[in-house]
Amino acid sequence: MPPLRVGYVPEHFSTPLHFAQTYYSLSADLIPFPSGTGHMVTALRAGELDIAIGLTEGWIAAIAKNLPLDQITDAGSSENEFKL
Question: At what angle do helices 56-64 and 37-45 cross, to 10 degrees?
Answer without folding.
Answer: 50
